[in-house]
Amino acid sequence: MLQEQEAHAAEMERTFIAIKPDGVQRGLIAEIISRFERKGFKLVGIKLVVPSKDFAQKHYHDLKERPFFDGLCDFLSSGPVLAMVWEGEGVIKYGRKLIGATDPQKSEPGTIRGDLAVVVGRNIIHGSDGLETAKDEISLWFQPEELVNFTSNSEKWVYGVN
Ligand code: IDP
Ligand code: MG
């Protein structure tokens, strides 16, 4: 039992997920949260913020050479963004699966972008793409004290460990 608990603890990850201004404006917050929640992932941080353009540029710094960078940063800073941290086994990679491909025309039905978005410039949601980016993005958007450490009541049923 102890081994199972240790293995479970070792697999736990956190990822940064944001509903972009289009998703917030279109009233998709509950729909999107629900998909992560029903899967069994745990919400450990959440806030609604309007990022400055400077902040948006920091968030998307990897894309600064791309032609759409300026428009993307204008867009991200154009209105409220729902910033979240989700925790769970494999949540970084599986979160990206729930989200779907970057271009909603190529996202599978059943994914968030596949079901709820049509064009790449308005694809409603962001998710970290790896362990390092998850760490960087969580620390960019959240102070450590804004994240909550707790054991959810459902955890033993989701993972089969106490
Ligand atoms: P991701 O959001 O799936 O990780 P990235 O390649 O990291 O995709 O791009 C970040 C965001 O930039 C995308 O979610 C999308 O909003 C925007 N983007 C990506 N490619 C294009 C494009 O070709 N035209 C316009 N916007 C784009
Ligand atoms: Mg990305």
Automatic annotation (TrEMBL):
EC number: 2.7.4.6
Keywords: ATP-binding, Kinase, Magnesium, Metal-binding, Nucleotide metabolism, Nucleotide-binding, Transferase
Active site (record annotation): H126
Domain of life: Eukaryota
Required cofactor(s): Mg(2+)
Keyword Transmembrane among record annotations: no
Keyword NAD listed: no
Function (record text): Major role in the synthesis of nucleoside triphosphates other than ATP. The ATP gamma phosphate is transferred to the NDP beta phosphate via a ping-pong mechanism, using a phosphorylated active-site intermediate. Shows the highest specificity towards GDP.
Quaternary context: Homohexamer.
Protein name: Nucleoside diphosphate kinase
